[in-house]
Design a protein that fits this description.
single chain, 89 residues, mainly beta, Ribosomal Protein L25, Chain P, six-stranded mixed beta sheet, 1 helix, 6 strands, 43% strand
């Protein structure tokens, strides 16, 4: 799949920082590919964080992406920091 603008929303904004939420059937490894968020380049800034729900139609995962590049319309996010990676019960 590809980036879906309707699935990206602002959760909070303060002091030039935006906390976003994004949900997608795409795997985290696809989402953290450079260029995935290019269509949102005008909104995303380096240092913004994206709380994400990924792989929503297979085995859902969640975590945080950090926007680490936005140059000339080319956006990149760091690999996901997964939340809830293990469940022992």
């Amino acid at each position: 799949m590809a980036f879906q603008a309707r699935n990206l929303s602002v959760l909070a904004y303060a002091n030039g920082f935006t906390l976003w939420h994004y949900t997608s059937a795409d795997a985290a490894a696809s989402i953290d590919t450079e260029g995935y968020f290019n269509d949102a380049a005008e909104m995303l800034r380096v240092g913004d964080m994206v709380i994400a729900n990924t792989s929503t139609d297979t085995t859902p995962t969640g975590g945080l992406f950090l926007v680490n590049k936005n140059t000339g319309g080319m956006v990149d996010v760091a690999d996901i920091t997964q939340v809830g990676a293990s469940d022992t019960d």
